[in-house]
Design brief:
heterodimer; A: about 220 residues; alpha+beta; outer membrane lipoprotein receptor (LolB), chain A; 13-stranded antiparallel β-sheet; 13 strands; about 15% helix; about 55% strand; globular; B: about 160 residues; mainly alpha; 9 helices
Chain lengths: ~220, ~160
């Protein structure tokens, strides 16, 4: 009985410790996007702190711009001043940063969303799960196929309600920073009007549990807004 | 009698094999969806990769600087001048780029981009539905919490 209690206690302590290990993530990011007739390059840094749940994107290219996502607000900061505020849905809990810190990236936030798990299959080295939308959303949404490889999110295929593939996302080149696994390359291919739109996002120099001074400066600015 | 029994077993086994093979055939193919033409992606983004290398080597440079210098790399591309424009859908849903919606905001973001581009009225309804659903869930949770708390306190 004693042994069981000790084991249980140890298990609980380990669980609590592992879930509290990661509280912030930061790094450099680049977005390359090419669609019909237009291209986009974004270069910058990002920070996210799970405690106050602000996402900061500090861009250096195409222009020096800072965007802070806080609850239902998206702030644009230019030259140390809040230039604009846009109301957006509160999606911080669905962010790649939040999911990664909570080690829930492998299901991409589908658990607890409008989607329900229909079935899981194993094909080659992929574990493929099929998610179907709630009956209230079936009119507009199609199924989602999500695959994991070595327990890491590998790819997502989005369908429309007529079973056509509308978008694919691939999560590649995972890096391990202080024990946290994060994809350093995200490839997105959208199929719009029989054309492919390609976007590649790369992340590098990922830092964990290191809140930079600029993050504090921007969040202070938001608090005083 | 024995032959008939064997035949029945044989039939069942055959049926089982056929159904396993048929199910396998039906199931197969999903893995194929998780692939893309890597060479094509590299090729399509080659000029952007060159620009990225240049920008990273010159970290203070902006697009305006490059345009003022009449940089040949930039002149050949129709570059979007802001970091927050949704070139994926042709217009910015709620003024926010697809990077934020798609990469940063996961499934919810993708749903919003799809919804907004498809039908703005439906999107608004969906948002309202989500808010109402969340409120209802919270209310039920609070009531259950108080019921549980009262029952514990009573004992």
């Amino acid at each position: 009985m004693k042994k069981v209690t000790v084991l249980l206690f140890f298990f609980i302590i380990c669980n609590v410790a592992s879930s509290q290990n990661f509280y912030s993530i930061g790094g450099e990011y680049t977005v390359k996007n090419k669609s019909d007739g237009a291209s986009q390059l974004i270069v910058g840094r990002f920070y996210y702190n799970i405690n106050d749940q602000y996402i900061v994107h500090e861009n250096s290219f195409p222009e020096k711009e800072v965007y802070v996502t806080a609850d239902t607000n998206l702030f644009q900061i230019n030259n140390g001043k809040v230039e604009s505020r846009t109301t957006i849905p509160d999606l911080t809990h669905f962010s790649i940063y939040h999911l990664a810190l909570n080690q829930q990236l492998s299901n991409y936030g589908l658990e607890g969303s409008i989607y329900k798990l229909e079935n899981v299959d194993k094909e080659d080295d992929l574990v493929i799960s099929t998610w179907i939308p709630d009956k209230n959303f079936k009119k507009n949404f199609g199924k989602i196929l999500l695959s994991t490889k070595n327990k890491q999110l590998f790819g997502i295929v989005f369908f429309d309600n007529l079973e056509n593939v509308i978008k694919k996302q691939f999560f590649e080149e995972y890096v391990n920073s202080m024990g946290l696994s994060f994809p350093s390359k995200v490839i997105e291919i959208a199929y719009v009007n029989n054309k492919e739109i390609i976007q590649v996002t790369t992340y590098k120099n990922i830092t964990i549990n290191d809140v930079p001074e600029s993050y504090i400066r921007y969040t202070d600015l938001i608090h005083s807004y | 009698m024995l032959i008939n029994l064997n035949l029945t077993y044989m039939k069942k086994i055959l049926l089982l094999i056929v159904s396993v093979v048929f199910t396998g055939t039906l199931m197969a193919g999903n893995a194929d969806l998780f692939s893309y033409d890597k060479a094509k992606v590299t090729d399509e983004l080659a000029s952007l990769q060159m620009l990225e290398d240049f920008v990273i080597a010159n970290p203070t440079i902006t697009l305006t600087d490059l345009q003022n210098q009449e940089n040949t790399l930039v002149n050949e591309m129709n570059l979007i001048p802001t970091g927050f424009y949704n070139s994926m859908m042709g217009e910015p849903p709620l003024g926010i780029s697809s990077f934020i919606w798609g990469c940063v905001f996961g499934i919810a973001g993708v749903a919003i981009v799809y919804f907004v581009a498809d039908d703005k009225e439906e999107t608004t309804k969906a948002f309202k539905g989500c808010v109402v659903g969340t409120l209802a869930y919270t209310a039920v949770y609070v009531v259950l919490y108080f019921v549980a708390w009262n029952s514990v306190a009573w004992y």
